[in-house]
Amino acid sequence: MKKILYIFGFLILMVSCTGLPDFSNTPSISYNNVRILTGTSTGQLGNPTKRDSVIISIDYQDGDGDLGFNDADFAALQKQYGLDVRTFLIELYVKKNGAFVLTNPSVKYGGNIRFRLKEGAKPGPIEGVIDYSVNFEYNLIEGIPELTGKRDTVKFDVTIKDRAMNTSNTIQTPEVVIYKE
Fold first, then answer.
1. Tally of CB atoms within 10 A around 157
2. Residue 12 DSSP label
3. How far apart are the C-alpha atoms of 97 and 40, rounded to whole Å?
4. Arithmetic mean of pLDDT over the chain
5. What confidence category does residue 167 fall into, taking pLDDT thresholds of 50, 70 and 90?
6. What percent of the chain has pLDDT over 70?
7. Angle 93-99-105 from CA coordinates, rounded to 5°
């Protein structure tokens, strides 16, 4: 019985001694999921239109937890890096004649992670999942000559940046079909 208590005590000690994960201060991402929701929305002219929302889910890790930003962070980033600050970057590929081509001109989708994923001033590791939606309206295919609006097969390259503008690795989604209806 005494031996079992020693083993149990040792196991408790080992579990309690595990520290925080040791992630790099440069964000790291991996593919989680991609799904499409088809619905209706109000188009640019105020008319109802069908829309495919491609929701890209990625897993992330960051050693100092400086992913996402609030309004004050965004203003500081714009002042330092210019008006076109994006922290969730997406490149669109369209399948043409059996091969994927980067849209021409290259369409830089994406935007910003508009909330801090870790509040407070104390840096530390974080990990989790980010869902990001890219919308394709059925009656609005502008500036992307590769899209036909009829069962287009697409995939995306995704990269994120933290508040220090450290750039993650790039992941690629599997192909999905938009404009099915």
1. 15
2. H
3. 30
4. 81
5. very high
6. 78
7. 35
